[in-house]
Amino acid sequence: MSFRNLDGHGDWVFGLGRHSYVNENQEILLNAKTRVLSFLGDCFFAPQDGIDWWHLLDYNKQTELENAVMSTIAETEGVESVNEVDSVINSDRKITLTYSITTIYGSTYNQELTPII
C-alpha cells in the first residue's frame, strides 16, 4: 500500500510520478499524522474516526486528549507501538502534540504537530 504525499500546506502532491507517493515508514507516519488531525465525524464513510477536538481542547481534558491521540495512533495500520504522547495547550487553546511511535519495520519516530483548529 502507498499513500499520496502531502506538501507543506497539507495538500496532495501531484505531477511527480512515483515521487508523489510515500511508502513503508513514511506511509505509516503520514497516515498517523492525518488520522490525528482528523475531526470526529468529519468523514462521511467513517464518522466514528477522528478526535473530538472541539470538546477535548481544555485544560482539564488534557489526559483525555492524550488518550484519544494515543488510541488513534495505536489503531493506525503499521504502528507497532505508541511509546509516548505529550501535549501542551496554551491559554488560547492552541496545542502542540509530540508523540513517539515504533513501526512494523522496527523504526522509532518522533513527531511534533501543531494542529490548526
What does this structure look like?
The protein has 3 helices and 5 strands. The protein is 26% helix and 26% strand. With 117 residues, the chain is an alpha+beta fold. The relative contact order is 0.16. The N and C termini lie far apart (30 Å). The chain has helices at 24-37, 53-56, 62-74; strands spanning 3-4, 21-22, 79-89, 95-103, 108-113. The mean pLDDT is 87. It has a 3-stranded antiparallel beta sheet with strand order 3-4-5. A two-stranded antiparallel sheet has the order 1-2. Strand 4 (95-103) and strand 5 form a beta hairpin. It is globular, with a radius of gyration of 15 Å. The longest helix is centred in the N-terminal third of the chain and has 14 residues, at 24-37.
Indicate the mean pLDDT: 87
Q: What portion of residues belong to β-strands? A: 25-35%
| Main beta-sheet strand count, sense and barrel state | 3 strands, antiparallel
Which structural class do you get from the secondary structure elements? alpha+beta
**Distance between the terminal alpha carbons, to the nearest Å?**
30 Å
The number of distinct β-strands equals: 5
Gross geometry = globular
Q: Indicate the multimeric state.
A: single chain
> What is the share of helical residues?
25-40%
Q: What's the number of helices?
A: 3
Q: Using the CA coordinates, give the radius of gyration.
A: 15 Å
Residue stretches low in confidence (pLDDT < 50, at least 5 long) are none
Output the strand order for the largest sheet. Answer: 3-4-5
The ordered string of helix (H) and strand (E) elements is: EEHHHEEE
